[in-house]
Amino acid sequence: MKALVKAKAEPGLWLADVPEPVLGPGEVLIKVLRTGICGTDLHIRAYDGWARQAVRTPLVLGHEFVGDVVDVAPGVTGISPGDRVSGEGHLVCGTCRNCLAGRRHLCRSTVGLGIGRDGAFAEYVTLPAANVWVHRVPVDPDVAAIFDPFGNAVHTALSFPLVGEDVLITGAGPIGIMAAAVARHAGARNVVITDVSPYRLRLAERVGVSLAVDVRTSGVEEGKRALGLREGFDVGLEMSGRPEALRTMVANMTHGGKIALLGLPSEEFPVDVARVVTSMITLKGIYGREMYETWYAMSVLLEGGLDLSPVITGRYPYQDFEEAFDEAAGGRCGKVILDWTA
Ligand SMILES: NC(=O)c1ccc[n+]([C@@H]2O[C@H](COP(=O)([O-])OP(=O)(O)OC[C@H]3O[C@@H](n4cnc5c(N)ncnc54)[C@H](O)[C@@H]3O)[C@@H](O)[C@H]2O)c1
Ligand SMILES: [Zn+2]
Ligand SMILES: [Zn+2]
C-alpha cells in the first residue's frame, strides 16, 4: 500500500510502498479515507530538534484521520466492517494508576500514533479497538478527519464553565478557531481571539468571534474596552504556545479567572506568577482528549449544529502531499486535508 513515510533521519517525507498492516489481537483494520495535517507532522517532515528525539525511522506519519472499518480481530465487539470511524491517537498503557482508574487521558506512558508507532497517512491503518471512535451519526468526512485536533479544542474549551462568560483565546490556529466556535456554541458572552496573522484572524471572524485582535498592531486592553468589559476575562484558552500570549492573558484576566493551556511552548519562559497568585488565577494544562468524554462531546456538538467548515481551507490528493505540507507550513491556511481515495 501507499504511505507517507519518514524513511531517513533527515528533512523530508517519502511516498513509499509499504506492507499493509496486519491485524493484531484486539485490533481493528481501517481503510483510510481522509487525513488532517498537524503541526506535529510538519515538525517530523522538517526533522527539527523535537522530531530528532521523538521519532525513529522508518515511520509512517499521521494521527488525524477518518476511515471505514474493513476487518476486526476475533473478540472485538461493538465495531463492525463498514463502520465509519476516527481514531484516538494516544495509545495508553492500561496498567498505570490513572489507566486503571479510567482516567486514560492521564496515562503516564502514552504512545502517539504516527510518532511512536506507524500512523494513518497510508491506505490502511490498524488501531486497538479501544482507540476507535465510531461515527454513529453521519459527519462530513473532512470534519471527521480532524476529530483529533477538534478534540484538543473541545477538551480545552470545555475545561471550565463558559456560559455567559467572557473568553480570551490566544492563537487563531486551527485549534484556536475551533475552540472559538465551541465557546460561541456553548454560550460564552464574548469570545475574543488574538493572533499575528490577518488571514487567520479573518478565518476566526467566520466562526463568529466578538473580536479578532492582531496583537502586532493593537492590544487586548483596547479590545476589552471596546466590548465594555469592566474587569477582565473569566476564561482564557492559550492556543499559541507563545510566551507573550500567556503573559498578555495573565495580565487581562479577572480575579479568580481560569486559564486552560493547550499551546506547547518550545522552551521555558517567565510569567508574572505574583499576579497569578494575587488574582487567584487557575492554570490547567491540557494534553490530548479525554477518553471518551471529549469524543462524545464532539459528536453531539456537531449533531447540535456546530459548524467547523470555515476551518478547513485546503484539500489535496495524497499524491500532492508536498504542496499540501507546504501550504500547512506556510500558515496562510486553516486545516489542510489529504484525500487517500483519489
Ligand atoms: N496539548 C496538546 O495536546 C496539543 C495538541 C495539539 C496541538 N497543541 C499545540 O496547540 C497549539 C495550537 O495548535 P494549532 O495546530 O492551532 O497551531 P498553530 O501553530 O497553527 O497555531 C498557533 C497560532 O498562534 C499564532 N501566534 C503566534 N504568536 C502569537 C501571539 N503572540 N499571540 C497570539 N497568537 C500568536 C500563530 O500565528 C498561529 O496562528 C500549538 O502550540 C500546538 O503545538 C497541543
Ligand atoms: Zn494533530
Ligand atoms: Zn497508563
Automatic annotation (TrEMBL):
Its cofactor is Zn(2+). Its EC number is 1.1.1.103. It comes from Actinacidiphila reveromycinica. SUPFAM superfamilies: GroES-like, NAD(P)-binding Rossmann-fold domains. Belongs to the zinc-containing alcohol dehydrogenase family. DOIA dehydrogenase subfamily. It catalyses: 2-deoxy-scyllo-inosamine + NADP(+) = 3-amino-2,3-dideoxy-scyllo-inosose + NADPH + H(+); L-threonine + NAD(+) = (2S)-2-amino-3-oxobutanoate + NADH + H(+); 2-deoxy-scyllo-inosamine + NAD(+) = 3-amino-2,3-dideoxy-scyllo-inosose + NADH + H(+). This is L-threonine 3-dehydrogenase. Homotetramer. Zn(2+) 2 binds at residues 93, 96, 99, 107.
